[in-house]
Design brief:
Helices cover 31% and strands 21% of the residues. With 315 residues, the chain is of the alpha/beta class.
């Protein structure tokens, strides 16, 4: 489908100099149906110039801090019927009314909702993995919405923004590995609860390692505390059924019989998301694991998937 404003769909990346913005720009470079346009760097904080840029575009991707993203959305709203579609990569609108959550594989019909949306909130990297694991189990009735859940995750340092990247790559002051958000109030928790349909607040402990990109998200479960005699096979079957037609999400079957280690970097430079169920029936224990590139399906890759759906291009 062509652009209503030109032969190609015009996309403006507001905040294109950041890690996510640069990756989105690179991914769109060879898209025949898309033209990426840029604002004069000297005018990137000029509200009038930004509004003119938005008016001339079909879609704007916001790669900005939360407050700046809210300001950009307000600016676009002033254009009324001339406002572009928006994909917001910040945290600002992920649980906001009027926004569609940009995880196309969330449930049946979600990709269609994204395609019809004017405003889409790109998911966070950690919630992408956790929600992908938990939502199908809640929907299938295997995991009660009020069940006490803990989520542990490790990400490459590129997910931490400019200052964290500099601490690893420039000043070399960062540790090899660290836990953070130990106040248990990480900003990703609201979307994790909302889209995994959790009624009890999960314990979420993220960490960062001395590698640029890559991610593992894990959810341990005591099977004997789940109702209905849930088995490892039942968990795996529920995930497999949910993602049977999802091109970017793969459930790795029978992982417990053939895998003993997982490399967090294995999916780097891809938009894939892999899901695993490990466990031992005799111990009544299981661990669900999601593997993804925090800059791929966890950020830029998801943004490109969403904007292509919104522009009527093959995603």
């Amino acid at each position: 489908m062509g652009s209503a404003k030109g032969a190609k769909a015009k996309v403006f990346i507001d905040g294109e100099a950041g890690t996510t913005g640069l990756q989105i720009r690179d991914r769109l470079a060879n898209e025949a149906g898309i033209e990426v346009v840029s604002i004069d760097p000297a005018k990137r904080k000029d509200a009038g110039a930004r509004k003119d840029m938005m008016r001339a575009c079909d879609l704007v991707v916001l790669c900005l801090p939360d407050d700046a993203a809210k300001e950009a959305v307000a600016l676009a709203a002033e254009l009324g019927s001339e406002a572009p579609k928006i994909v917001d990569a910040s945290t600002a609108h992920r649980v906001a009314p009027g926004w569609v959550y940009g995880f196309a594989e969330l449930e049946s019909g979600q990709a269609a909702r994204i395609a019809k949306a004017q405003r889409v909130a790109n998911p966070g990297c950690y919630p992408t993995g956790a929600i992908a694991l938990l939502r199908p189990l809640v929907d299938a009735g295997l995991l009660p919405a009020g069940f006490p859940v803990s989520v542990n995750a490790v990400s490459g340092y590129s997910g931490g923004g400019k200052s964290m990247i500099e601490s690893y790559e420039v000043s070399k002051t960062a540790p090899a590995f660290e836990l953070y958000a130990l106040g248990l109030e990480h900003k990703h928790i609201p979307e994790l609860m909302a889209y995994a349909r959790l009624e009890r607040r999960p314990i979420f402990i993220p960490s960062v390692g001395n590698f640029k990109q890559g991610m593992l998200v894990s959810v341990p479960l005591h099977l004997d505390l789940l109702p209905g005699n849930v088995t490892i096979k039942m968990l795996e079957e529920a995930l497999a059924a949910h993602y049977a037609s999802a091109g970017q999400v793969r459930v790795i079957r029978d992982a417990a019989t053939k895998i003993t280690r997982l490399d967090a970097l294995a999916l780097n430079a891809t938009d894939a998301l892999e899901l695993y169920v490990f466990g031992k029936s005799a111990l009544n224990q299981a661990v669900l694991i999601a593997r993804l590139d925090n800059l791929g399906k966890g950020a830029s890759g998801a943004a490109v998937q969403n904007l292509k759906l919104m522009l009527g291009l093959a995603a």
